[in-house]
Amino acid sequence: MKKVLSIILALMMACTSLAVVASADGEEDNQQEQQETVQKYVKEINIKPCRDSRVEKVKNDYVEYYESKNVAGYVIRDINVNYGNDDDYIVFSYSYTTDPAEAITGLLVNSYSSRIKTKEYLTVDGVEYTKVYGDLNDNQGGDYVHVYTTTSHQTEKLITDIGFRTSDSLFDGDESWEDTPAYESDSPLNLNKGSRKTNKAIYMTFNSILDTVSSEIKSTYIAKIFMASGDSPAARDQLEETLIENDMGCGYEVLNYDLNEGAKGKYIYLGYVFTKDATEAVNGVMLASVKSSDQNERFIYNENNTIKYERLGGNLNEGTAGDTINLYVTYDGSTGKALNRLGVQVGRTNSSKVQYSFVNDERWHQVSKYGDEKDTIDLNDGANGEFMYLWDFYSDYTAEEDHKFIKDIYVKVGADIEEVYKEMDAVLSRTGLEYDYSPFDLNKGTDGSVIIMGWTFTDNAKEAITGVMLNHSSRDDAIEDELEVDKVKFTKIPVNLKEGNKKGFVYLYTARDKNAEYVLTNLGIEAYDSKLFAKNFKYFAESDKWSPVSTYTNELKYDLNEGNRGYYIFLWKEMESVLNIKDNTSSDDDTDSNSDDDTDNNSDSDDKNTDSDKIVYGDVTGDSKVTMEDVTSIQRVVAKLSTFRPSQKERADVTDDGKVNMEDITYIQRYVAKLVKKFPADKVSK
Question: In whole angstroms, how far apart are CA 441 and each of 103, 180, 326, 497?
Fold first, then answer.
């Protein structure tokens, strides 16, 4: 329930205009009113026949079941669906969700003269319906009667309640309720059809509202995904605390299923925080499975080897005897997608037709498998638990095309790959610039040290590297610190790219030539092994933009592991002509002109604050106003998508505790909504 309230309240406050509440005194009453008006939708139907003596136990079992699932609510209908019969009592129940994306959107009933003839799926007007297990005419000697559901939003309905109509039913005459249609019939179906013991009729009815899922689900995106594992279900609570801490103002969600359900391993839960800004969204997810955790890479690529994915969290099969399974994510907007939701499909069969809401909705897709994107992975693979699959739903997304260029290249060496990545992260993040790094150890497969290459980006072409090349020798003292090619000076990065393997020396050189016709826009690492990498990263060679980083002595690509029994590792470069770059900056040859202009412009607002001896707390955009734009700017920094200048950080710290976090964001949201009049950091009232 805490999850639901958080999402609804956050969406109503942070993701709208925020012109909502008249005074702080009315805040509590307003929140209570919002809680009372949360819309619920039918999510899961359960049907169970039993003897009269066991009815109460079955109902109690359902209570325990629903409460263990942390659902938004549930109903156990106090009516025997075998109405008027003396044999089995049919207990009918269903759970609620507050997420319209999970809602049942259509119902059908159908009867069969033989169990053998019963169909698992029915199709009406192109919409597929899935059977709910449980005969509504159980043990009566009549037809087999089943309920079918769909979650396809082609029906344009969201089911909000289910009931049953008899001659004396309270649903009679209530126009808000509809009879559930029978398959291939214009009339409702008597659920006691063919019963040998009674001719009393009973019909299923439902209540619904118009489908709002398209507007609601597409209005928020998954900004960041988190994973928690533990020895008990308390891991879910720990995850929820993490999500609350990282909430970007638009709420969060936890996938309620333990992803090791039935596998007897750790309790594993996934959750995510939402954003209203598509530019902050996750652009893709992928699963990878290996027999040993040592074999799993920190980075993988999509099938065309053009999109890099980074490993998230730990093993989704942790503590079991199954394979190591990891989730990978990308923020590369060139996927053309922004992730809206994730879902989990669970069942006792590995069929893709398990009765789950999103299975029949064409907008949802199973999360693809690394190495074969037409395939998927059972999250309990090899662990003998429930069959479990991850699904995703996306909105179309067009990333803004921007020019960025490589400003500096760094190389880090160490013994442990994770530690080297941490060191590289620390170095690159201190620059305050966007950055990237090699997805592989450049000494991969050898006995040498771990070598990671990283680079920072700039939007100023005049700051960019204009050339890269390699130089190698069997002797270190034979490699000079500087080389000249066509009157352009190249400088050595003083780290041996064969460090520790004792098979020669190779160094990377960079150049900065003000008269260059091309600038460096990206670096790529081609890595393959005859056993583990059957596919070469061919996209480098097939693209006109990419060319191999050649050596000083020739223009052929050079294997960085030359002479070693490791992976084949090649370095590629992507260059762009300066003639293709729309440079709106000054024509001054001063290399730092762009950054100087930016600094001056940004400093104007700082000077204004200084001149008036008063800092406008909450105003990080420098427009002398505190608005939702400031909230968005701080959210990006908290999510580690951008960085502050010193003056911005001071103004963002409205709580005056020396840190900028969700507490500051919440305070500013409350200020914009006029729930507070000043910040703790203010010395005088605004």
Answer: 46, 60, 19, 10
pTM of the predicted protein model: 0.57
Rounded Cα distance between 504 and 561, Å, is 9
Q: Please write the tens of the pLDDT for every residue from 197-206.
A: 666 788 899 9
The answer to whether residues 276 and 17 touch, using CB atoms and an 8 Å cutoff, is no
Question: Could you give phi then psi for residue 33, rounded to 5 degrees?
Answer: -65, -40
Distances (CA, A) of 199 to 39, 188, 190, 347: 38, 16, 10, 37
What does DSSP assign to residue 478?
A: G
Average pLDDT, the chain: 79
Beta bridge partners of 192: none
What mean pLDDT do residues 651-673 have? 85
62 three-state secondary structure: helix
Query: To 5 degrees, how large is the angle CA 24–CA 30–CA 34?
Result: 150
Cα maximum dimension of the chain: 101
Structure tokens at 202: 């009973």
Query: Please, which residues bridge with residue 144 across strands?
Result: 112
Q: Is 430 helix (H, G, I), strand (E, B) or coil?
A: helix
Query: With 90 as the cut, is the pLDDT of residue 478 above it?
Result: no
74, 392, 215, 26: CA torsion to nearest 10: 60
Percent of the chain scoring above 90 in pLDDT: 23
Q: Sorting pLDDT into bands at 50, 70 and 90, what band is 405?
A: very high
Sign of CA dihedral 654, 655, 658, 661: negative
Enter the tokens of residue 279: 């530019």
